[in-house]
Amino acid sequence: MFNAYLFKIYLVGFIPLFLIALVTWLISLWKRDVSIVDSVWAVFFLAAATSFAFKLPFLGPRGIILLTLLGFWAARLSTYITWRNWGHPEDSRYRTIRQNNEPNFAWKSLYLVFVLQALLAWVISAPLLVILASPIPLQWSDFLGIAIMLFGFSFESIADWQLAKFKANPSNNGKVMDTGLWRHTRHPNYFGEFCVWWGFFLLAIASGAWATIISPLIMSFLLLKVSGVPMLEKDIIQRRPAYRDYAARTNAFFPGLPKP
């Protein structure tokens, strides 16, 4: 687990995240759109892991595997979110936050949105440092963690591709996506993200870092109770009445067979 040496590396690892948050905030002032923070959410983790790796004296196979998996995950997610949001106005979730924190939201958004997300990412990144610093040979839990992470990565990637293809068809305008992975869960992209972080945790426990379970627990809580499912579904039935029937027959998060 964390000794004084690793804890110092962990503390310093917040610096690049804060700098990314600061630069992104400055861009948001110019664009008047704080939802661009979503594009750097995955970048925060890659920046933290890279910072940790540079300060460690060596990287074993586990660390190299982690950086590779994390790099593909961050590149895909950041690129997809940037492409999805390009040319669109500020996300409705952030417009609500903006309205609730006027006046001077432009300045408040630095800590309410950007630094807060950087801080969350830094806390959640704790298992990444343990994995990178571990000298222990690969064990069964590593291969299980890699399998779960790759499953989650594939699940959310396919879900995002299916939804993008659905939205690209003009005949689907205003309709609810209920095919493919979306037939089995209303939020397959979030379920995939859930698997990714529990997979990373399994890579960390080979070093006895059970305490880092706080990271996947925080991520799971955010997806299930805060910024994930509840926030997206808060007013979706008002915007899309057909979603009521879809929600009645489809699991919210964990995949399952549709109800009759």
UniProtKB/TrEMBL annotation:
One of its GO terms (cellular component) is membrane. InterPro entries: UstE-like. Keywords: Membrane, Transmembrane, Transmembrane helix. It comes from the Bacteria. The keyword Translocase does not apply. The chain crosses the membrane at residues 7-27, 39-56, 110-131, 143-164, 196-224. This is Uncharacterized protein. The lineage of its organism: Bacteria, Pseudomonadati, Pseudomonadota, Gammaproteobacteria, Methylococcales.
